[in-house]
Amino acid sequence: MSSPTPHPPSALTLKSTGGLLRVIQSEVQVYVPGTKNQVTVTGIWDTGAEKSVITQKVVDALGLQPTGIGNNQTAGGMVKAQKYMVTFGLPPNIIIEGAEVSALPLPSHCDVLIGMDIIGLGDFSITNHNGDTCMSFRVPSMHEIDFVKNLNFIAKGTPSTQTQRNIIKLGRNDVCHCGSGKKFKHCHGK
Asked: For residue 5, what pLDDT band results from cuts at 50, 70 and 90?
């Protein structure tokens, strides 16, 4: 089976207001493929899930027809579940067509679980700067995000014998290490 297909490059960012998030959740639109028939529900993002999941509530609301039955690894073990084809809309502008999902029970606060089949289509990061969580996702993948490679400051001290540290000094006119594309002096060098 082919992989889900994202439309042109797009991204979404979710930020907490006032603390760390223990669950990453967002609005998700689930469409019947090839139509504008959709429901808008709350979805959770789970990097520990291989495949995305919808609830029976979504299946019933859209009148989806099963495409087969598949095995699904869950926290409670292996279970068989009906499979469906859907299109996901991740506001503000991400559309992913051809997502094969299973219908399984989810926590009461959500009706979609976004798994690695969707997350793996692009770049996904979570930061907790100043005690607030920021999750960002873009499709397709545009460049590698490597926090080790992008470090520009190292706390004073001697590198341990177990780890080698590289100190990277950026000039004020160099491109910022964070990937914003701005000059360092206009971004993190303020």
From this structure: low
Q: Above 80 in pLDDT, residue 53?
A: yes
Position 91 pLDDT exceeds 80: yes
Please give the tally of structural domains in the chain. 2
Residue 174's domain spans which residues? 146-190
Q: What 3-state class would DSSP assign to 184? A: helix
Alpha-carbon gap, residue 57 to 12, rounded angstroms: 25
Residue 142, Ramachandran bin (φ over 0: left; ψ between -120 and 50: alpha; else beta):
alpha
Last-in-domain residue among 101, 118, 139? 139
- pLDDT over threshold 60, residue 139: yes
Contact 76, 65 (CB under 8 A): no
